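User: Predict the complex with nicotinamide-adenine-dinucleotide.
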Amino acid sequence: MTAVEERMKSGLPENTATQLFIAGRWQDASDGGTFADLNPTTGKLLVDIASGTADDIDVAVGAARAQMDGEWGNTPGAIRGKLLNRIADLIERDAELLARLEAHDVGKPVGQPAMLDIPNAIATFRHFAGWADKIHGSTIATAGYFGQPTHSYTVREPVGVIGAIVPWNTPLMIAGWKMAPALAAGNTLVVKPPEDAPLSILHLARLIQEAGVPAGVVNVVPGLGEVTGDALVGHPGVDKISFTGSPRVGRIIAKRAADTFKRTTLELGGKSPQIIMKDADVEAAINGTAMGLFFNQGEVCAAGTRVLVHRSLYGTVVDGLSAAAQAQVLGDPFDPTTTMGALVNAKQRDSVLSYIQAGRDGGARVAAGGGQPDRDGFFVEPTIFADANNDMKIAQEEIFGPVGTVIPFDTADEAIAIANGTAYGLAASIWTRDVSHAHTMAARVRSGAVWVNGWAAIDPALPWGGMKSSGTGRELGWAGIEANTEEKVVTIVL
Ligand code: NAD
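Assistant: Here is the predicted structure with nicotinamide-adenine-dinucleotide placed in the model:
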């Protein structure tokens, strides 16, 4: 079967991008190597993707550096903004195709990227199009220089060549979080898409080319983490690594980046609490926490996997979340009745199943789910654990699947102690009708984001990032511009 026939048989469009995009050219890997991109719903081959080598990374970094020192480095912010808006227009034009690619590749119901990931990517490019010509420094008064007055001001300059490493759960959206602020601030990029789901980012590369972004400003090099990703992190010509992924790999990258003093932004995992106070609107809280548990098959860094419930509401919430788990319809991402897809690969499925076993072994009660449906693909039943405590493995470690642990509390102090009682600090939800509780609890939770009466209220205008093991640095909003610039001070002795 030819490659084109193979693609059409898998349901992918015949012209799906599968090569490396370096210096404006689509090409095979330098050694001709490929990796298999599987369909999570069937477990079968979706398509073979060119697998970038260290040599390919070297060429891509060279192209990005040449643009930094050349045309792109001299492109005014207003023009960069115009290009970012054009990219947003093209994502909007191809929104349906991009949602389909993510459904094939990640295994998620096609309506979800159409509703969230793709609109978020469009909004992110538009938001940063607006910043591109508004990046400014400040003037600062000083005590002078050996008795002479001075005039001091700061300017923000691009960091340089940025290596962006992206995970598979929401690939287009997270690629947008890295690319849009970096380009707005005048940087160039080498992007390493995830090996489990590279297709939407490869299509984005086509749109960037069509938008007229000069060749070499954005290079997209798919490949394996330990090969292509590692070559990018180790390359002396890369000034910064912007990484989203697991704490395990984040730690490797932080250590490796230190060798060449690269800047890093690390967006890592989470074990986020959702606190349901005694005065909460219980129905809204159950609906919202269920979304925080099951959206995107629970493969969300900010998934609210620890549901902390005031003891007076405990039974009601366990029953409500169990009903929500049982109401999930697992199946084909293209069937409109499907609400939950497959996990991304066999390793992820087996890891989630092993956590479910650990929950049972640890003494928690399975209130819903707990098994593996009898069908092809990497499906796991949405699962609710009750009668659990915060010391259990299922309450401490990131599962990255549709598994929630419901833990009772009696006082606000106890809720805060449990909420802060993991290594993570990415996000938290608080469900309450008391405005005083909303603010006092929000102030006491150690996490990068707190949502009151909602879950995942993420917006490109708001800074995003974690405390503790959830990472370092912030993306999005003005913080995204700061993360992609170096601040220089200029002092003139008058
Ligand atoms: P992962 O860490 O396994 O992989 C992430 C990326 O890193 C992939 O592109 C992979 O190829 C690459 N990589 C792997 N090893 C590497 C190495 N040695 N050097 C350089 N690159 C390497 O993570 P994943 O399984 O793709 O994603 C799930 C994780 O991502 C979860 O922990 C989740 O919480 C986290 N995540 C965080 C956020 C956030 O914003 N904080 C968002 C989404 C996902």
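Residues 55 and 439 are 52 Å apart (CA to CA).
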